[in-house]
Amino acid sequence: MSRVGNKPIDIPTGVKAELKGSSVTISGPLGNLQMNFNPRIKVEVNNSERRILVKNDQPEDRLSKQLHGTTRALIANMIVGVSQGYEKKMEIYGTGYSVKEQGGKLTFHIGFSRPIERVIPKGLKVNIEVSATRGDEVPAKLTLTSTDKQLLGQFAADVRKVRPPEPYKAKGIRYADEHIRRKVGKAFTSGTA
Hints:
By secondary structure, this protein is an alpha+beta fold. The protein folds into 2 domains: 3-83, Ribosomal protein L6 (Outer Surface Protein A, domain 3, Alpha-Beta Complex), CATH 3.90.930; 86-175, Outer Surface Protein A, domain 3 (Alpha-Beta Complex), CATH 3.90.930. Helices cover 21% and strands 37% of the residues. The strands form 4 sheets. A 4-stranded antiparallel β-sheet has the order 11-12-7-13, with helices on one face. Strands 1-6-5 form a 3-stranded antiparallel β-sheet. Strand 9 and strand 10 (116-119) form a beta hairpin. The chain is elongated, with a radius of gyration of 22 Å.
């Protein structure tokens, strides 16, 4: 029995939920999201109590148990997304590194022989606070915002993968709250022997 799956999902004011077959649509002030769920799971939308219940009729089936909590969590994330939205802050460290947005693409100048481009997916917004680094101490900063938590996380991971932070000077692209485990560089001895 899934403890997460059994918790009812409250629908805040300004958010509407519709159920059609095995598809649930959530609409709110920030946009609309739609998800198809597995027919093994039953979803009930109670508009009078402003609640969504996710039920599992086959609690002994392993796949149904797995889908129960996952479906409930995904619907809850959709409700938070259309009512509040999600954001992910990222930083770029490294001398001379920069980022800019043009034509629906993010262009990174991060130490390669050519700029690296990533297409910004539909439904995701990018806000660049600081476009270029200043030395190794002041990073370039950008904020990604979206109503879709999965789309936001996937794009942020793709951006980080362009140049992950290296362990010696921690240069590269990282999440703002990420901690980099640093390694000690080579130790040089004085040449007196």
